[in-house]
Amino acid sequence: MSFLDQAEQPGDRPVIATFLGDAGLGKTSLAATFPSPVVIRAEDGVQGVPKSFRPQAMPTLSSVDDLWAQLSELYKKDHAYKTVVIDSITQLEQMFVQKVVDDDPKRPRSIAQANGGYGAGFQAVGALHQRVRKAAGVLVERGMHVVFLAHADTVNVEPPDMDAYTRYDLRMNKRSVAPYTDNVDVIGFLRLQTYTTGDGERKKAISDGTRVLVTYATASCISKNRYGIESDIDVQLGVNPLTPYIPSLQSEEQ
Q1: In the predicted model, is pLDDT for residue 192 greater than 90?
Q2: What is the band of 199 on the pLDDT scale with cuts at 50, 70, 90?
Q3: What domains sit in the chain, N to C, each tagged with a CATH number?
Q4: pLDDT of residue 208
Q5: pLDDT reading at 150 higher than 60
Q6: Helix 89-103 crosses helix 120-141 at what angle (to 10 degrees)?
Q7: Cα dihedral 221→64→86→166 (10° resolution)
Q8: Side-chain half-sphere of 131: how many Cα atoms within 13 Å?
Q9: What share of the chain in percent tops pLDDT 70?
Q10: What number is the average pLDDT over the span 23-49?
Q11: Considering only CA atoms, which of 166, 167, 217, 210 is closest in space to residue 190?
């Protein structure tokens, strides 16, 4: 049978999403609104989720080996979880950096010197993140949604055809970012809805606490989606704001 004979319309599959934002904005609470979640904890953001819908969480990671073991159990063992949340890939970055430094027999002082320097240490860290992304793909094949959480930071962007500008991005080395941005379904930037008052240099930013999720392409932050979302989405506590847009989330509620 030829490949053309096997062509068919793909069905809806689980979501792979990356959410970033400043600390304390509710990234973990947002992830907890996904179907039947379990959290892999590189940090303990679960404590910030209201008890009424606080998700189940595995023991906080004490080593990189714990990470691989927890991901492996989610794939190999029977369970009722439908979403895995990794909180956070920013903290995983620190764990991976320490592992690469510790595994170098030359005992380098920093990741810049690891594996002989010249960026080799950063490449090794990036390879560990690629392994996480590969595991995520395997879990999607098992039928699980995957949510990566990250802290945000501002970075300078220097396009070749326009002036440089600043945007929000993942707080990670640039060699570690691609696994969580290049081949995911949603990159969402969680922010406060903010207004400015005053004139000139005395402008003041104010907010009423309303949170919005940016998932469309914009110069101010790294964000995108594969579901045709073109405007900010209001985020309400305990409600998944993406369900109206994503068929695989809608089917979980039926």
Answers
A1: no
A2: low
A3: 16-253 (3.40.50.300)
A4: 61
A5: yes
A6: 130
A7: -10
A8: 16
A9: 93
A10: 94
A11: 210
In 3D, which of 15, 51, 89, 74 has the Cα closest to residue 240? 15
Helix axis angle, 64-76 relative to 89-103, nearest 10°? 120
Instruction: Compute the C-alpha angle 150/221/98, nearest 5°.
Output: 30
Rg of the chain in Å (alpha carbons): 20
Report the chain's terminal Cα–Cα distance, integer Å.
Answer: 37
**pLDDT digits 0-9 by tens, 236-246:** 999 999 999 99
Beta bridge partners of residue 17, listed in sequence order: 147, 186
Residue 14 has pLDDT above 90, yes or no: yes
Helix axes 120-141, 64-76, angle to 10 degrees: 20
Please give the mean pLDDT across all residues of the chain. 92
The pTM assigned to this predicted structure is: 0.93
With a cut of 70, say whether residue 41 has pLDDT above it. Answer: yes
Contact criterion met (CB below 8 Å) for 197 and 203: yes
Are 58 and 85 contacting, i.e. CB atoms less than 8 angstroms apart?
no
Which 3 state secondary structure label does DSSP give 74? Answer: helix
Query: 227: how many CB neighbours lie within 10 A of its CB?
Result: 15
41-56 as b/e, with b when 16 or more CB fall inside 10 Å? bbbebbeebeeeebbe
The answer to whether the beta carbons of residues 186 and 225 sit under 8 Å apart is yes
Token representation of residue 55: 């998700």
Cβ neighbours of residue 27 under 8 Å, at least 6 residues apart?
Answer: 19, 20, 21, 45, 87, 88, 149, 190
